[in-house]
Amino acid sequence: MLLHKQTIQPATAERRRFQRVKVHLLGRYMLPDRREFPCQVINMSPGGVAMLAPGIGNVGDRVVAYLDHIGRVEGKITRIIDNGFAMTVGATPRKRDKLAAQLTWLANRDILNLPEDRRHDRIVPRNPIAVLVLEDGTRMSCRIIDMSRSGAAIAAEQRPPIGSQVFLGLVQSRVVRHLDDGFALEFVHEQLEETLEDSVTAR
């Protein structure tokens, strides 16, 4: 009888067994019609994930996603949320155990305030004012909070969509995260330390 109960109530058992953790991961996902979109995970457990997403399918749709630090996950949309959706994660018990370990590490990294990229020292430029060119060619003034050879944190009134391609000065970049007062950029190509400041503040 116990086995029978588990087979008809997997979602309830899953909610009890897995605790969702807040993580900020970027990725891409594909809907059944094969359209692909960028996404940002806002919380996740080994049994489910909630994400911000520009292309929202229907409840019951199958989704295949590729997430930074996690890899491929697939499942079905369970509910629609503001600007995104929640989905199940279909996985073997062994894969779920691995996911639980990955999520624990990612959650601790966020608590310890270790952003994705600490490969390079972050610096504050002497002249923090820069020009950002958006995908549609719009130019906007912004302030560089700090930067490294591989990315920058930007303070600005307008926040471009996550995943959009922009230019910070002469440097081609991608918006990877929204911050309280701006957004984070990842440079498409790693920059040289000696020319970094001139490149990002060029007009």
TrEMBL record:
Residue span, PilZ domain: 14-101, 117-198
A Pfam family the protein falls into: PilZ
Name recorded for this polypeptide: PilZ domain-containing protein
Taxonomic source organism: Rhodopseudomonas telluris
Source lineage: Bacteria, Pseudomonadati, Pseudomonadota, Alphaproteobacteria, Hyphomicrobiales
